[in-house]
Design goal:
By secondary structure, this protein is an alpha+beta fold. The chain has 8 helices and 14 strands. The strands form 3 sheets. Strands 1, 4, 5, 6, 7, 8, 9 and 14 form an 8-stranded mixed beta sheet that branches. A hairpin with a 4-residue loop joins strand 2 and strand 3. Helix 2 crosses helix 3 and helix 5 packs antiparallel against helix 6. The protein is globular and about 65 Å long. Bound molecules: (3R)-3-hydroxy-3-methyl-5-(phosphonooxy)pentanoic acid.
C-alpha cells in the first residue's frame, strides 16, 4: 500500500487543443500555478487476486466510465514501465469533483506517482510528468509545485511533452506567493468535458488560428511577469488569456459555453471591484467557476488589507464556497 498527495493547478496561460488525441500532446505550451489547498489523496495497492483495476472515488466504487478511463491509463503505465499487476485504487478529492476545479489534474498526477512508487520505481519528474499527461493533459503540471510550464513539444511520440518548474525568484528574492481565491458557484457537473470542448474548438472555431498565433507572446510575457513577480502584468495577462480562450470556444459550432448566469455576474463583480481599486484579476476553465488572483502580503499590502479584499470578493451572493490558495507543493508520497 502506498498513499500520495497531488495538488490541483490553475492555468494562467491555458492549454486548449490537442496535437494528438491518443498521446494528449497539446497544440500550445501552458503555464500554471499549483494550488496548496486543493488536492487529491490516492491510496494504491497491487493485488495478485485482481484481474482488473478497481477504482473507489471519494469512498464509493467509481462509475464504470470513470473506472474504464483509469484502467486505460493503468494499461499505459503497465506497458511503459513493464509490469502486469492490477491495483485497487482509493482516490479522494478534497474539493468538488468535475466542476472545473481541475480534479482530473490532481487525480491523474496522484495516480501516476502512486502507481510508479507502488512498483518500487524511482523516476524523474520529467518522466512522471510525461506519463501523467496521458491520463489528463493538465495532470502533467500537477507533479510540480509553484509555477509550472508544460512544454508542448514537437515529437510525434510525445517524449518532449512534459512540465518543468518556472522560477519566480532569483538568489536575491524569495519565492512569489500571490493568492488564488477559488470561487465555487455550483458543484454541478459540467455540460461538456474539457477534451470534447477543446476538440470541437480546434475543429470548428474560426478564431482558433488566432488563439494559437497569440499564445506565443502571452507565454513569454507570463514567464517574465512571474520571474519579475509583477502582479499587474501576471493578473492582466491571465484574465486576457482566459477570456480569449473562452471567446475562441464560444465561436465553435455548436458553441462551447461553460458560463452560467452566476459566472457572468462574478465577472462583472471582479471587474467592478478592480475599477474601485481592488487589485484582482480572474480566470476560468472548462466549468462555471471563477478564480481570482490577488497580490501577496508585502510592504505595500498588509495582511488585514488582503483579508478585506478576499471578503469583498467572496461576499457576492453567487459564491457558495471558496478556497484561498497559495502556490502549492509538488506531488509527494505521504505514507508507505
Ligand atoms: O487537462 P484537461 O483535459 O482537464 O484540460 C484542461 C483545460 C483547461 O483547464 C481549460 C486549461 C488548462 O490549461 O488547465
Amino acid at each position: 500500500m502506498i498513499k500520495v498527495r497531488a495538488h490541483s493547478n490553475i492555468a494562467l496561460i491555458k492549454y486548449w487543443g490537442k496535437r494528438s488525441q491518443n498521446l494528449k500532446t497539446p497544440l500550445n505550451n501552458s503555464i500554471s500555478m499549483t494550488l496548496d489547498q486543493l488536492y487529491t489523496e490516492t491510496e494504491l495497492c497491487y493485488k495478485p487476486e485482481l484481474s482488473a483495476d478497481r477504482l473507489f472515488l471519494n469512498g464509493e466504487r467509481a462509475l464504470p466510465a470513470m473506472e474504464q478511463r483509469v484502467q486505460g491509463f493503468m494499461n499505459v503505465l503497465r506497458q511503459s514501465l513493464g509490469f502486469s499487476a492490477f491495483a485497487e485504487i482509493h482516490s479522494t478529492n478534497f474539493f468538488p469533483t468535475g466542476a472545473g476545479l481541475a480534479s482530473s489534474a490532481s487525480a491523474f498526477a496522484a495516480l501516476t506517482l502512486a502507481a510508479v512508487k507502488g512498483q518500487g520505481q524511482d523516476l524523474s519528474t520529467e518522466v512522471l510528468s510525461r506519463l501523467a499527461r496521458q491520463g489528463s493533459g493538465s495532470a502533467c503540471r500537477s507533479l510540480l509545485g509553484g509555477f509550472v510550464e508544460w512544454q508542448a513539444g514537437q515529437r510525434e511520440d510525445g517524449l518532449d511533452s512534459f512540465a518543468v518548474s518556472l522560477p519566480s525568484s532569483s538568489p536575491h528574492t524569495s519565492p512569489w506567493k500571490p493568492i488564488m481565491v477559488v470561487l465555487v458557484l455550483t458543484s454541478a457537473h459540467k455540460a461538456i468535458g474539457s477534451g470534447d470542448g477543446m476538440q470541437r474548438t480546434v475543429d470548428t472555431s474560426p478564431l482558433y488560428a488566432s488563439w494559437l498565433d497569440s499564445v506565443a507572446v502571452d507565454l513569454s510575457d507570463m514567464r517574465a511577469g512571474i520571474r519579475d513577480q509583477d502582479f499587474e502584468k501576471v493578473g492582466e495577462l491571465m484574465e486576457h488569456n482566459a477570456l480569449k480562450m473562452h471567446a475562441t470556444a464560444l465561436a465553435a459550432r455548436p458553441s462551447v459555453l461553460y458560463w452560467e448566469p452566476a459566472s457572468v455576474a462574478l465577472i462583472h463583480h471582479i471587474q467592478g471591484l478592480r475599477q474601485e481599486g481592488v487589485p484582482c484579476y480572474l480566470t476560468m476553465d472548462a466549468g462555471p467557476n471563477v478564480k481570482v488572483l490577488l497580490p501577496p502580503v508585502s510592504p505595500s499590502l498588509s495582511a488585514a488589507q488582503q483579508v478585506q479584499y478576499i471578503q469583498q470578493i467572496i461576499e457576492h451572493p453567487a459564491v457558495t464556497q471558496h478556497f484561498v490558495c497559495q502556490p502549492g507543493p509538488e506531488a509527494q508520497v505521504i505514507a508507505l
